[in-house]
Amino acid sequence: MRAQNGLGPFAHRCRVYYEDTDAGGVVYYVNYLKFMERARTEHLRELGFSQSSLVLDNLLFVVHSTETRYHAPARLDDELLVSAQVVELNRASLRFSQRVTRATDDVLLCEGQFLVACVRADNFKPRAIPTALRAAFADASGPGKTLEQEI
Fold it and tell me: How far apart are the two ends of the chain, measured CA to CA in Å?
């Protein structure tokens, strides 16, 4: 299914700490991936699912692939808004579209797409996303959504 929504995406606030910056005083590029991972985790938590409870159910989400573009630097003490929006919901995977903006001026710093696979925790083989979790992600796309089957 492909989810199209009229609501804004989930957004997680975070702060840039000294450990996030490089020698030039800007956020080291790989740390944007960490910020986006945290936003996906917090989005899952907001939907009522924690990573630890999913592991107990023999389920993990793993990043299969990512595409990321960097637009402007973040600096020490900047407050960031990191969005996480499901744009594609398949049997055993999700595609997230994510953006990192500076909270004070809404400047786009980084954006990316992440294909996240659902796997068994015991052997890392693909498994279907559980019905309750699928429903939560579908409901998060809000009223007025259109879902189309993918073949």
Answer: 9
